[in-house]
Amino acid sequence: MKILTVLIEYHISNMDNLYFYICNDDISISIGCRVYVPFGHQNIVGYVIDLRHSDLSYENLCQKDNVNYKYIYKVLDENPILDNELFNLAKYMSKEYVAPLISCLQTILPPTYKPAKTSLKEIKYKQLKKVYINENINYDNLKPKQIELLDKIKNNNGILLKDLPIGQVNTLIKYNLVNIKLVKVTDDYFKDYQKKDNFHNLNDEQKKAYQTIIDSNKQVFLLQGVTGSGKTEVYLNLCEYYHSLGKGVIVLVPEISLTPMIIQRFKQRFTDIAILHGSLSSKEKQIQYDKIKNGQAKIVIGARSAIFAPLKNIGLIILDEEQSTSYKQDQSPTYHARDIAIYRANFFNAKVVLGSATPSFETKARAMKGVYQIVYIRHRANNQELPPVYIANMRNEVSEFSYMISKTLDQEINNALDNNEKIILLQNRRGYAPYVSCRNCGYTFKCPNCELSLSYHKNGDKFKCHYCNYEIKFNHICPKCDSQDFLFMGTGTQKIEEIIQQNYPKAKLLRMDNDTTNIKNGHLKILEKFEKEDFNILLGTQMVSKGLDFHDVTLVGVINADISLSAADFRSAELSFDLLSQVSGRAGRGDKPGKVVIQTYNPEHYAISLVAKHDYELFYNQEMRFRHKLNYPPFSYMSSLTILCEKADQACILGDKIFDFLNKYQEFELLGPAFPYVFKENNKIKLRILIKSKNHSLINEALNKINVTFAKEIKERKCSILYDIDTYKLL
Predict the structure, then answer these.
(1) For the segment 194-229, what is each residue's pLDDT rounded down to a tens digit?
(2) Beta strand pairing status for 299-302 and 220-225?
(3) Is CATH 3.40.1440.60 the classification given to domain 2-113?
(4) CB count, 10 Å around CB of 621?
(5) 429, burial (CB in 10 Å: exposed 0-12, middle 13-18, buried 19+)
(6) Domain 204-377 identical in fold to domain 389-430+492-626
(7) Which of 365, 404, 498, 702 is most deeply packed, by most CB within 10 A?
C-alpha cells in the first residue's frame, strides 16, 4: 500500500492544505505527479509532495493512523511535471514570499498543469505529416537535386511534407531513402513577423561588454547602455556563445508588446526557440512548455512568467529593461523575476545579465557596491547623438486649439507629418477622462466595489474601473439630481486620439493601450501596422516607451509628464525619469536625427530637467540623497502585509493586533494601519501595514510567524492576508 501526501487548492487561509490518500503498490506514481482524488462531494486534482509505503492492510492502516483513507481515482502523469530544481524553487518561494506552496506551484506551472479544480480533458495537438531521412542510405546514382533535398531534410531534422515538392518526395520514398511520420505541430508563433534583420558586427564598446561578461568570474552583471546602444545585439552574441556550449538561455522582456520585436531578431539566428507570455492561450502555453521540457527548445523568450521555464542546464538569463516594475508580481507569491533569475542561476552556475539605460536603484546600488559587476555602453550603436529634448512649459505654451498640446509640440508634429516621418506620442493614462462629475451638484461617478473614481471610455460610452474591471453604461443623466451637464476631468489616450484626429488632417493614428491590445495578438497587429503600413502616429501608454525599435521615428512627444510624477510614492521621481528617458530613446534610432518634446507644468523638477540632459548618473546621486535621508530602499528593505476582509471592523481589530506584534521588533519602522493605508477595492476592505528595516531576513521571519500565530484568528474573522516582500507600492 502506498500512502500519498497530496497538496490541493482549497484555500481557507495562507496555510497549505495537505490530505492523505492511498493507492495499491502496483500503481506507478512518484513525488511531483498529479492525481485525481475524491474531495467531499467533488473530484479534484492534487499534487503529490510525499510518498511512503506500508505493509498493513487497508483496515489495519486506517485503524493505526486513525484516518479513514480514500483511494485516488487516477494518476495523471507518467513522470513528475516538475523536476527537483523547480520543485525546490517552489519551496524556496513559499518560505521567502510567505505564500502557500500550492500558490507557488500554480505560479510556476502553465494553466493546464496546475494542481487545481480542473478537468481531465487532454490537449489535442494538430498532427501533420513530416518527412525524415532514413539511416545508412546510399547516395550512389542519385541526381544532384535529390541529394540537395536529402541534405536539406537531414539538416533540418525533418521537414513537413506540405513544404516539399510532392513529386521529388515520392521518388525518394520509392527508393526507400525517406519515411513519413505523423508529428504533433507545436506552433510557429509570430511566423509572419519576419522583418529583415541585418546582422551587425559588434562595435568596440559592444565587444568589450560581451567579452567582459564571458570572461568574468562574477555571476550577475548590470549592462548599462544608453537607449539605442545595441544591447540586444550583445544579448544575441551572448546567447550564441552559451547556445554553442549546449546550454539553455532565458530572455525576459518587460512588456508583452516587445516580444514580437525581439522574437524576430532571435529567429534570424536560432531555430529552437519557445515563447511564454500572458497573451498565449492555455493550449499554446502547454505546447510551448512541452517544447522546453522535452528539450526541443533551448532558448526561451517571454515576459515575467518565462523565468519559470523548465529549461535544463541553464547558462544565461537576461532581463531586458530590468528596471521595469512589470517584473514584480503583485499577487501571491509576490516574487521579483530578478531574484528568481539569480536563485536559478546559482543552481546552474549560470550568469545573469540585467540590461537597462536607467537601472533600478536597487540594481544600481548593488552594482556600485560591487555585488554585481557593472558594464557600460555609453554611445549609440550608429554613433548618432542622443536626441535633443525640449521641455515645453504648459503654464505658458498652450496651443490655440487644445490645452493638451503645446505650441512646440504642435509645430514639431506638423513638421514631421510634412516630411513623411513617424511620431510616437506618450500619454500614460488610458480611457477618455479619469473623472466625471456633475456640474450642477458635484456628484462623482465611483466604482461600487472599490469606491474609487470610474474612468470614462468614449469608445462604448461607458464607465470602467481600472482596478476591478467593473463596467457600466453612461446614460448622461446624473443619478443624484437628474442633470445632463457634466464635467470631464483629466485626459486619457482616447481624448488625445480625438484631438489629434481633429487637428492634424495628415495624421493616420494608431492607439496602443490596454483597450486596443486586449484581443489575440493585439500588440503584434498594431506594431505591424505602424511599421509596414502608412500609419504615421503611434499613441499609447507606457507600452510604447520601452524596447520599440523603429528607425523612421523622428519625433517623440510626451503629452503630460506630470502623471507619474504626482503619484504618492517615494519612487515617483525614479519611475518618471525612467519612463521619460525610455520613451525619449525611441526617437532618432535610424539615419535621421530625432527630437523629443516633453510637456509639463513642473519644468524645474530635477527628474524632468535631468532627462533633458540625458544624465542618469546625476539623477541617481541626487535621488539617493533623498532616499538616504528618509531611509527608503535601497538603504532599507521594505515589505508590507495587506489584510483583506469584507467587514472593516474585523480588518481593523486584526490589523491593530498584528501592528502590536510587529511593533515589538525594535529594528522595524512601521507605517499604518490607518488612512491612507485603509481603503476599499474589489468589494474588500484592504488594510495595509508597511515595514521598513535594515534586516531583510528578520522581516521574513516576522511575517512567517504572523502566518502561524494569527492563523486561527484570521480564519475566524474571515480575513486573508497578502504578504508583499520587497513591495513596490506604498499605497
Answers:
(1) 444 455 689 999 999 999 999 999 999 999 999 999
(2) unpaired
(3) yes
(4) 10
(5) buried
(6) yes
(7) 702
